[in-house]
Amino acid sequence: MRTAKVLDRLKAEQAKNPDVPHYDSMGTPWPQPPSDVKTAGYWKKLEGRRPARGEQPCAFVVSGHGSRYNPTGWVAAYHLSQTVEIRRRQAAPQPERLTTAARPIAPEPLPLIKDDRDETRQRLDSLARLLERAPLGGQVLYLDTETTGLAPTTNDLLEVAVVDDSGTVLLDTLVRPRRRQAWPEAQAVHGIRPEDVATAPELATVAAQLAEVIEAADALVIYNASFDLGFLPARVRKLAAQKAVCAMEAYALWVGDWNDYHGNYRWFRLTAAAMAAGHTWSGQAHRALADTLAARSVWQWLHAQALPNPRDV
Question: What is the pTM of this model?
Answer without folding.
Answer: 0.64
